């Protein structure tokens, strides 16, 4: 953040991932956070369906590994992961960084009742 930029206001936003609601504290805008949560939700649903894993922690770890692998490929090799559209590399890399940030923030908060 530059010297002239005002600090962003942190606030709690409710997101739903794999049928469970989480309250995430962030300085990002609500629409951005909802997009990130939607990406995480879809990625976790895909992993759950492909692996037939029922334990949510296992699904979360497998999803994190898959997203981290894609991020490393994008960072280190500058290429899209298999099956990805190369024209969207930068946007995909940013979305993956956003997912990692969301995951880190979610680990610091408790699921809402």
What would you say this structure looks like, in words?
This protein has 113 residues and is of the alpha+beta class. It has one domain. It has three helices and two strands; from the N terminus they run ββααα. Strands 1-2 form a two-stranded antiparallel ribbon. β1 and β2 form a beta hairpin. α1 packs across α2, α1 crosses α3 and α2 packs antiparallel against α3.
Keywords:
113 residues; 56% helix; single chain; alpha+beta; 3 helices
Quick description:
The chain has 113 residues and is of the alpha+beta class. It is built from three helices and two strands. The protein has one domain (11-107).
Topology:
Layout: E1 11-17, E2 20-26, H1 30-51, H2 56-77, H3 89-107
Antiparallel strand pairs: 1-2
Helix pairs in contact: 1-2, 1-3, 2-3
SSE order in H/E notation? Answer: EEHHH
Question: What is the number of helical segments per DSSP (H or I, 4+ residues)?
Answer: 3
Q: Kindly name the structural category.
A: alpha+beta
Number of spatially distinct domains: 1
Straight-line distance between termini = 34 Å
């Amino acid at each position: 953040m530059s010297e002239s930029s005002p600090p962003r206001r942190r606030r709690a936003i409710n997101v739903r991932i794999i049928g469970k609601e989480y309250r995430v504290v962030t300085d990002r805008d609500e629409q951005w956070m909802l997009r990130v949560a939607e990406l995480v939700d879809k990625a976790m649903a895909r992993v759950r369906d492909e692996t037939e894993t029922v334990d949510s922690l296992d699904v979360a770890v497998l999803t994190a590994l898959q997203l981290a692998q894609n991020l490393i490929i994008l960072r280190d090799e500058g290429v899209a992961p298999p099956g990805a559209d190369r024209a969207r590399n930068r946007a995909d890399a940013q979305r993956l960084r956003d997912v990692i940030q969301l995951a880190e923030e979610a680990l610091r908060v408790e699921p809402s009742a």
